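[step 3/7] fold_predict: job queued, chain A
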Amino acid sequence: MEELSIIDQLAQLRITASSQIPPHEFLYTWNGTPCFAKGELVAVTGKAKSGKTYLNSILMAAASGQSFLGLKCLINRPLCVLWIDTEQSADSTCEILRDRIGAMIGETPSENLYHVFNLRSVNWQNRLLCVLSAIAICKPDLVIFDGIRDVVGDINNYEEAQNLIGQLLHVASDYKTCIVCVLHQNKAVEDKTLRGALGTELQNKSFETYECSKNSDTRIFTVKQTATRKYDMPGRIDFCLSPDGLPIPCEVPQDPSSSAAPTIRSEKLSFNPEYLTPDGKIDKTHLFHYILSEGRKMALPQLRQVVMKVANIQSFNFAFRVIEEAHTAGLIQTIKEGTETYYQLVT
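[step 4/7] structure written:
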């Protein structure tokens, strides 16, 4: 009976060229690139205080349907979010939910859509049961699990690591949810690998990995995709904090004497000459009359992607600045249609 059971199981698990398997469903696009797939694990990593919680806040705010820093929800409804916080105090968790995410979306986060649990006071042996139960009860589209290190006794125990990641993969698949797992990098400055056996197993099984970092001099945070099984997200996302402590886009200052200077100069030389003024600057009037002619309208992520392609701009942030300057100069304007904001020419 046991042999037949295994044969039957293998028959169910077999993949052929004619297998009818639904494609991945992604929760977001980031600057036009699909990301954060349902039914998968995503790793978020970085050193201590490198912006991991800010990235989580951006993900949770964008779940409302609004676009933040080029991150846009693909699902035609607000996402159901489960946030498990094992690291911060309950007061800090509440403050982030109320004062950061609430401020970003412009309203008090709905209790029906944002399910937030602080498990720092729970014994570590019981935390995983709480996490799995919360997923079963809430059935979220997106799980922010910050951090998974706090549900194992030994981060270097390979058996514990395999059991945990195996359970999370199983739950993600069963409930068609994307589980974002937050885990620190090793403490050594040059060592960017994820900590312990748990980090190795998470890296091996994750659908995507995002690395957060912070420049201590400029106080600018950077997020970049370092691994993916599907779509490569080019470039990186840079942001700083507004006076209210909210993440906002920003330009990375360049030191002319640094090794980055030749890259900046070479990028300028690569701009499409058709859309340059005689002094080598982007001709915004020509550019946007070409892109948005004949009454076209575009949302910000699409517009930035087209601006980059047409003008051959390599930097997401520079393209954003070109759009903002054209908006400030009165060349383009925003219009609201339902919950969506679009850009069009000023006529």
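[step 5/7] annotate
DSSP finds ten helices and 15 strands in the chain.
Confidence is low (pLDDT under 50) at residues 256-269.
exit 0
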